[in-house]
Amino acid sequence: MSSTASGKNGTWRNWGGNVASRPAREVTPASVDELAAAVRRAAEDGLKVKAVGTGHSFTAIAATDGVLIRPQLLTGIRNIDRDNMTVTVEAGTPLKRLNMALAREGLSLTNMGDIMEQTVSGATSTGTHGTGRESASIAAQIRGLELVTADGSVLSCSEKENPEVFAAARIGLGALGIVTAITFAVEPIFLLTAREEPMSFDKVTGAFDELWAENEHFEFYWFPHTGSTNTKRNNRSAGPEKPVPQVKGWIEDEFLSNGVFQVAQWVGRAAPGTIPSIARISSKALSARTYTDIPYKVFTSPRRVRFVEMEYAVPREAVVETLRELKRTVERSGLRVSFPVEVRTAPADDITLSTASGRDTAYIAVHMVKGTPYQAYFTAAERIFTAHEGRPHWGKVHTRDAEYFDGVYPRFGEFTALRDRLDPDRRFQNDYLRRVLGA
Questions:
Q1: How far is it, in rounded angstroms, from Cα 402 to Cα 394?
Q2: Strands of 25-27's sheet, edge to edge?
Q3: Which residue, 29, 57, 51, is CA-closest to 127?
Q4: Own/partner long-range contacts of 232-237 (Cβ < 8 Å, ≥24 apart)
Q5: How far apart (Å, rounded) are the C-alpha atoms in residues 62 and 43?
């Protein structure tokens, strides 16, 4: 997966290619003081301010016609506190770099998403997550953060210091200020054994509660137009370490999962009628495998095929019925869907606008390859998700607004009141935040 968004002739574009904007100027601060000065100068010039990491959001959450802050010089680990088992890292640090640095120190995050190209601040601010029975999103592992607010002041937040800001800013959408550093909880590095195997759609949905309960991390991918899924179960292991052999890993993770899959997407785009047949072949391409490795090598995988994505969080008890409705919709429609549907889970957390805030959650993600019309499929899926009080991922395509969110987030008013206090002049406002949070 590319590690940066593209920009030509002053135009910023996100990774998925579905969002573009033309900022008045770009700033790449080398320190927190320089970033704070850039915010104050923007206020003097009457310009809005947005920070952008690697552009992996499919929404316009980072788009601006004002000042675009790029944090790539704000990188690296500030401090490792082994007494309290935390690491403090600069906000522009890519997750990949953090994971590798922690591994060298014999440490690890407890859970993570399935890609690690995003910056730590971009990933947490939009609610990036993996899958877990008891371990939650990346933001739920935050123990403290540093924030530059609209007046250019620097605010430190934790459960003890500015706790009301900490409760919200862990997933702050860029609406409360610009995150400049994050303190994560860490633990001694451990091993995970991954078991990947095909399973029928009916079997995995019929046994979903058992599969969730029996595994620390369970997820699966359903291939539309088929009755097939590929499941993945990750559980802690005493070892020994048995990584995927290098050649085998290249064949399965690069050649099949990226190379051949990319060709299949090109064929499907050119001839949509072939997609059901391609899906049946794709669903049988990967065989069962088991391997044991350190966490980031198990949780994450390369994603080189570019796509556009919608993901909704539904109450965990509603996931099977939601999936069955989605399957029936695809089967009864003329939709041609070439990308697998991804299903993951998370326990309830206490972050104000986390998609798992206050409820045990399951995530259903639908994708279409970049350049393919996705609106009909996403509209049909969103209709199903919202009927189950779904909460869309803040960084993925959706059409919901502030009125909707006020109905599905019990603490929505708490977040907007905090925003009123921290950013009364809407220095960090853009069209996306105006829609999802209100004016």
A1: 12
A2: 25-27, 67-69, 49-51
A3: 57
A4: 232/194, 232/195, 232/196, 233/194, 233/195, 233/196, 234/192, 234/193, 234/194, 234/195, 234/298, 234/299, 235/192, 235/193, 236/190, 236/191, 236/192, 236/193, 237/190, 237/191, 237/192, 237/193, 237/292
A5: 18
Say what the alpha-carbon torsion angle 235, 302, 187, 124 is, to the nearest 10 degrees.
Answer: -120
Q: State both tokens at 140.
A: 């739920």
Q: Is 294 exposed, middle or buried (0-12, 13-18, 19+ CB in 10 A)?
A: middle
Contact 134, 357 (CB under 8 A): no
H/E run at residue 313: strand 307-315
Buried b (16+ CB within 10 A) or exposed e, 6-23: ebeeeebbbbbbbbebeb
Distance CA 253, CA 410 (A): 41
Task: Report the C-alpha gap between 156 and 412 in whole angstroms.
Answer: 23
Kind plus residue range of the DSSP H or E element containing 249: helix 246-249
Inter-residue contact 71 to 146 (CB < 8 Å): no
Concatenate the DSSP letters of all residues of 412-438 into one string.
HHHHHHHHHHH-TT-TT--HHHHHHH-
Cα 333 to Cα 152: distance, rounded to the nearest angstrom: 52
Taking CA atoms, 183 is separated from 157, 231, 270, 317, in Å, by 10, 33, 47, 33
What is the pLDDT averaged over residues 306-325?
96
AA letter at 325: E
pLDDT band at 309 (very low <50, low <70, confident <90, very high): very high
Q: What is the pTM of this model?
A: 0.92
Question: Could you report the per-residue pLDDT of 65-92, keeping only the tens digit for each?
Answer: 999 999 999 999 999 999 999 999 999 9
* Number of alpha carbons in the 13 Å side-chain half-sphere of residue 304: 12
DSSP state of 408: H
Which stretch of 187-196, 245-254, 275-284, 321-330 has the lowest confidence by average pLDDT?
245-254
Q: What is the 3-state secondary structure (H, E, C) of 85-134?
A: CEEEEECCCEHHHHHHHHHHCCEECCCCCCCCCCEHHHHHHCCCCCCCCC
Round to whole Å and give the CA distance between 363 and 365.
6
Q: What is each CA distance from 200 to 150, 205, 207, 332, in whole angstroms?
A: 52, 9, 11, 20
Q: Side chain identity at 324, as an amino acid letter?
A: R
Look up residue 432 and give its two tokens.
């996306």
94 CB-contact burial (10 Å; exposed 0-12 / middle 13-18 / buried 19+): buried
Number of other CB atoms surrounding residue 56 within 10 Å? 27
